[in-house]
Design goal:
Elements (H helix, E strand, L loop, with lengths): L3 E11 L2 E12 L3 E5 L6 H8 L7 E6 L2 E3 L4 H6 L2 E4 L11 H5 L6 E2 L2 E2 L1 H14 L15 H13 L5 E5 L7 H16 L3 E5 L6 H4 L2 E6 L2 E7 L5 H9 L17 E10 L3 E9 L3 E5 L6 H8 L7 E6 L2 E2 L5 H6 L2 E4 L3 H5 L6 H5 L10 H14 L16 H13 L5 E5 L7 H16 L3 E5 L3 H7 L2 E6 L2 E6 L6 H9 L2
Length: about 500
């Protein structure tokens, strides 16, 4: 019998605001239900209520037609509801097997039965058609593989309802296909899958139904087969204009950054390219192609073993992050929460982190931070508000904003649109284009290859640590770009 999860008039109030306003919706087993909405629409609040980690102010939750009380995550697990959040909850110092079976490690005579631990964890991964060493520590895995372990942890509960919050935000195209195959298999077994994503292009591949929230209210539920991308965007935002790269972004003749035979053992090799003034240069490739490693090497956050970096026609001597910053480079990392921001600090403090030497007091920081908030349209009620309270898109704009005080010549963007909504993505693109008009160059890495075609002047394709091709966006399509990245 297929599972079902239903909410009746769910309401969640906070002082001065209503996060959910009478949401009644049903998620049936055997289907993949895409739950959509821009940041602040109420998706996260609804998910937390269904996961048992947040009580509703009023309303009811029904599992298989029977009302249940979900006072904790354990209650949700007992009702067959498992949730995989976008923010990973793994323990880096433990193995893959320990994380998958956390709190449920099998014992024999009071002692952990390690062979059984590894056997059970391996069985979960095998069912997902995933090959990982269950004895490997999670700290040794990249973000994408950590996401897979997080999903395996949820799968180990054999859930009747599986909630996936942005599960593909860190996955490459072929990994996404593998995950989709698993999700379809689960739905085919009667599981009700609630799938939250900002990647609207994924919906035709995976979703059976579309459920849209806006400003805490249910806008509607439609069958995927009966809607169009334009209708979905209109439901989410009311109206939004999809931007294309403006025609008035000229690229200067002079090189601002050059990589000459750049290499890093085991990561990439023989990388050659020239970035010109005002250019937006995209780097495409599947996970493991070496894109992130290359960007980190360009900022000298990790050393390269061979080759040279040239900035504005001069070789870089003794490269390091301090040197590269002084030469006009800025770097926005893939994991903005862990490596791009200090979550406990205010928005003001984070906006000034890269340029602390310019300020002697907090009062001097305030007007600069406020100017950046206004310039980048960062949605924050007070610049003293902790940056952790901001949405993903606004946090990303803070990561970018903190570098603008350094007057960069080149900004390295590593997955800047990961986990943010369509509107926030367009704002990030607009920032890149505005910087281009000012003569600031960008290198843009994205797993969403459609974005590279939309935003960039040129696209380099990386595969197995080497640049194998250069394309012009106006001369290719997203499908062709995916094929080139996946070619053997």
């Amino acid at each position: 019998m297929a599972a079902s999860l239903q909410t009746i008039a769910i309401r969640k109030e906070y002082p001065g605001t209503v996060a959910l306003d009478g949401v009644s919706v049903r998620f049936d087993g055997g289907k993949v239900h895409a739950l959509l909405g821009k940041n602040g629409a109420g998706k996260s609040t609804l998910v937390k209520i269904l996961a048992g980690t947040l009580p509703p102010t009023s309303g009811a939750i029904l599992v298989n037609g029977r009302e249940v009380l979900l006072r904790s995550a354990q209650d949700a697990f007992h009702q067959g509801i498992a949730t995989v959040y976008q923010e990973l909850s793994l323990i880096p110092g433990l193995t893959i097997a320990e994380n998958i079976l956390l709190g449920r490690l099998p014992r024999k005579h009071g002692v952990i039965a390690w062979p059984e631990v590894y056997r059970r964890a391996a069985a979960v991964l095998a069912e997902m058609h995933v090959t990982l060493d269950v004895r490997q520590q999670v700290s040794e895995l990249g973000v994408a593989k950590q996401q897979i372990v997080e999903i395996a942890k949820a799968m180990s509960f054999h859930p009747a309802v599986l909630i996936l919050d942005e599960p593909t935000s860190a996955l490459a195209h072929h990994e996404t296909e593998e995950l989709f195959a698993l999700i379809r298999k689960l739905a085919g077994q009667g599981v009700a899958v609630i799938y939250i994503t900002h990647r609207l292009q994924e919906l035709p591949q995976i979703a059976d139904t579309i459920t849209v929230l806006r400003d805490g209210r249910l806008i509607g539920v439609v069958e995927m087969s009966e809607t169009t991308p334009q209708m979905i965007v209109r439901m989410i935002f009311g109206a939004i204009v999809q931007k294309q790269r403006p025609a008035d972004l000229p690229v200067g003749a002079e090189p601002v950054l050059e990589a000459r035979r750049l290499g890093q053992r085991g990561r990439f090799r023989e990388v050659n390219f020239t970035l010109r003034k005002g250019e937006v240069l995209g780097i495409a490739g599947m996970l493991g192609a070496g894109r992130t490693e290359l960007l980190r090497a360009l900022f000298a956050a990790e050393p390269f073993d061979e080759g040279e970096l040239w900035v504005e026609g001069r070789p870089v001597r003794a490269p390091g992050p301090v040197v590269m910053k002084r030469l006009g480079l800025a770097f926005t990392p893939e994991d903005r929460k862990q490596h791009g921001l200090v979550q406990m600090l205010s928005t003001r403090a984070n906006l000034c982190l890269a340029s602390l030497t310019l300020f002697t007091t907090r009062n001097r920081e305030r007007p600069v931070a406020q100017r950046l908030v206004d310039q980048l349209a960062i949605m924050v009620s007070d610049i003293e508000q902790p940056v952790a309270a901001l949405s993903g898109g606004n946090q990303q704009k803070v990561v970018i904003g903190k570098w603008l005080n350094t007057r960069p010549r080149v900004i390295l963007f590593d997955e800047p649109t990961r986990g943010i909504d369509v509107q926030a993505k367009q704002q990030i693109f607009q920032i890149m284009w505005d910087l281009s008009r000012q003569g600031v160059s960008s290198i843009f890495v994205s797993s969403e290859l459609e974005e590279l075609i939309e935003v960039c002047h040129r696209i380099l394709i990386m595969k197995r640590g080497r640049i194998i091709a250069e394309l012009r966006p106006e001369e290719t399509t997203a499908d062709e770009l995916y094929v080139r990245c996946m070619e053997t």
